[in-house]
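Please check this today:
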Amino acid sequence: MCAPLDARLVAQELAAAYASRSAAVAPSERDPSFDLARAYAVEAELTRMRGAGGRATVGRKVGFANKAMWRVLKLDTLVWAHMYDDTVHYATAGHASLPIGRMFSPKIEPEIVFKLKRPLAAGLDPAATLDAVEWLAPGFEIIDCVFPEWRFTPADFVAAYGLHAALVIGEPMPISASSIPVLVDRLPRFTARLLKDGELAEEGSGRNSLRSPALCLAELAAAVSRQAGAEPLDAGELISSGTLTTSLAISPGETWRVEVDGLDLSPLTLQVLG
């Protein structure tokens, strides 16, 4: 039986793999006992390392927001990881560009992004959850995986920055008290079209994010509250609430666009640079 992996060493190895664009062996392949508790210890060490390097956390992203996968993967909730001040970018007038030349194997995911205006407690219904939100916006999360052939467990996912490489945020839509009932109704039902170079690549809906991005946000608050040592969701945090479509590989020179029907959100266009 192999000795349990050291969280600090795993964090250093994975950080080095991403920095050098090198493949890495997934922690669970080296240590079958590598579980989510130990993965969050690695994630915390990565956050500490990034902080020591002058970077600040600005929010969190979720993973495995498709509840149909939980039973197969032996999950009882979604998983999460931090995002940073140098990985989150804002589009201008609905357009942005992003270099990916330093990434290993990037993919794109259209998502709904929330900004909290106050701390978010666990156990709230969708309306009360949205009452803690300042705005929502369309977003593109760029994920990147150094594990060969994108093979990983949920624990590996958490330990590898949650695969978070970048988040591009489109034009925000403010949330008012009067708009919350409408959003509660529409967030499960809106649709999204993902276009690549003007051609339809994927279609998705709010149901793909735990049946509603508002429910996904509430579940994240609950998951964080159950994680020992994790700080509760706080005012000012950005939350990327899970992909609305399947993840698709991206390459320099491509232009991606997401268009949303059913919510008053402007399209978001991203030019991928080398």
Notes: The mean pLDDT is 97. The longest strand covers residues 133-143.
